[in-house]
Amino acid sequence: MTTQTITDKTFAELGINEQIVANLAALGLTKPTPVQAEAIPILLQGRDLIAKAPTGTGKTAAFLLPGMNRMVSEQKEGRGPRVLVLAPTRELAQQVTKAAISFGRGLRGARVVCITGGEPYPIQNRELSKPYDILVATPG
Q: For position 2, what pLDDT does the model report?
């Protein structure tokens, strides 16, 4: 009998959509980090989670992937966010946006909008008037 620790599992074994898994592989991400391996199953169940881990350990993917996975599996079309990410800084919002675009490449219903402070309102309103699925924003 073989024992598989949670960090030995693949993204697919954690329940992530095959197109998202392919996008991750294209980015060189084939195995979840420990924080991802712990967080993804909990978040896929719709449970709340707070995670604390050092910079660069994969927290962005740990939180984005389950939301994107649910969004893709439901395949609802509409206006407005199906995934909302609030980031404390403009830089982090931009980083999360880039990750969401990369993870969602080729997926139907994975349009991303980033709204941050310091941008002119007409530009933000124009972005929000287009169909989108994922809204990444900073408060304020």
A: 47
CA 21/CA 19 separation, integer angstroms:
5
SS3 19: helix
> Which amino acid is it at 86?
L
- List the structure tokens of 25: 């592989």
Instruction: Give 10-residue mean pLDDT values along the chain (140 residues).
Output: 63 94 94 95 92 91 93 73 90 95 87 89 89 89
Which pLDDT value is given to residue 104? 92
* CA angle (90 as vertex; 121, 117 as ends), nearest 5: 25
Contact 98, 114 (CB under 8 A): no
Please give the structure tokens belonging to residue 3.
């024992």
- Which domains does the chain possess? 6-137 (3.40.50.300)
Helix, strand, coil shares, percent, the chain, to 5: 45, 10, 45
Q: Bridge-partner residues for 115, per DSSP?
A: 137
* Residue 115 CB coordination number (10 Å): 16
